[in-house]
Input
Amino acid sequence: ETKEAAQTWHSKLPVAWHNTTWTADRTIEWLKYGRGDEPFCTWVSFPDPHHPFDAPEPWSYLHDPAKIDLPKYRKRTFEGKPWWHKRVLTAEPTGDKKGVEIRKSYSRIIEQSDDQLREIIANTYGQIALIDHNVGRILIALEEAGLAKNTIVIYISDHGDWLGDHGLVLKGPMHYDGLLRVPMIMRGPNIPKGKVVEEPVSTLDLGPTFFDYGAAEPLQTQHGESLRPLVETDEVKRDFALNEWELLPTRVGVGLSLRTVRTKTHKLTIDLQSSAGELYDMVADPDEITNLFDMPEHADVKDELLGYIASRPDDAGPIRTQVGMA
Output
């Protein structure tokens, strides 16, 4: 029924038992009966959208696969890409036998046909639609509790999914925009309706933002910056946003220390262990096809972005001891 698309099913699990519904139910229950009268900060974390792509019926049928738009570039190619793009798809993960099998069979998906990609994407959209529905339920609960006018709500994801872009599905150390660039929606007192912020920001900014709006002092150093000035004025600008990922061989079979910086015009990723990297002009090449990293004529831009990475605070490390497969 799903054209043998990888890890894709129409789940028979009742919607009321699905983790998205369960998460919203617990949140609404807490808003009604558990929060008390003190100010609060609540983190509501929905596991979806995530593989396996198994939205429950009827949500899994909400989007017609035949009408799904596909990524422009959906064939795997490693020409001009840094060495790890291919290696992480073929290397043998290390660790215990069960962990290795999970990484090989669950965390990697072979190239899919166009019809299979449409099934995967349509099911993912079903997962997202179910989340949207339950976020609506939570917002209604805020209204009914008399809290809506005095509560900041931020709706965001931790990352995206390639969903066929560059022939890839799921997530990993290829930091294309579909994986790193996620939407963020805010509402609340003093937040202008309909305003769009174009500056590069990061989820690291969420902590400082909550402390700012809550007039609270953090107990630990915050490595982001409050979004409040960006939201409430047009005077603040941001140069860049950072992303980093330490990968152990237990995950993809090779060790990587990736650092990525994104400006309004360019994106650079470097592996600190091998010094290999990739650089894209996101204005002229938004699909991230041509790697400019080793081209001498782009050395100035490369050096500028490497400087942003070098500005990372020293107290953001060191890397902690491994827990699990990482």
User: Anything to note?
Assistant: The longest helix spans residues 114-144. The chain has a mean pLDDT of 94. The chain is about 30% helix and 10% strand.
